[in-house]
Amino acid sequence: MSIFENILDILEKKGPLSIPSLLDEMNRMSRFQNTNGKPIELSHVKSVISRKRELFTIKNNIVTIDPDKDPVLLSVSLGGYPGPWYKVEVDFINERFVYFEWHLSSFSQRNELPKVSGSIEDFKKELYRLKIWKWQPEYNNPGIILDGITWSVKLITKGNIFESNGIQSFPNDWEKFCKALSKLTGKYIC
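RE: above sequence
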């Protein structure tokens, strides 16, 4: 696990902390050490926090996750004619998700059981990397579309709501987003 992921984990579990307290928590965990087996240094923690400045807020020397980026609920809807259509809602507070798949065609495989689902915690870390809050409100293909994929994503955070949608046009990290959703649900999506 990277320093960045450890900072996220510690702030999730312990709440806002000073940078020295973050360092102490990391070094207290025996599983996290430098590649040479030595404890992590304060400069490493400061470096990660400064590189991820848009995600972390520092006030009075206390580090928190920016409330505008801290997810509460994610709702994803996508599909196209003749199907399938997918709806996924991820509740980060209660650590659960709902997956719904709808097929218009009678030839679909309806009795297929999902693979083992992934971790909401890992999915949340991937959302931080994907920076959905930077996605445009609309992605539209300039041509005539007869049977493209229609999608919408709504991310509710502790401080804001971000919505994005499209028709056969996607954000740059769409494939990574779909891969993360598929890993979470245990079903191929997108």
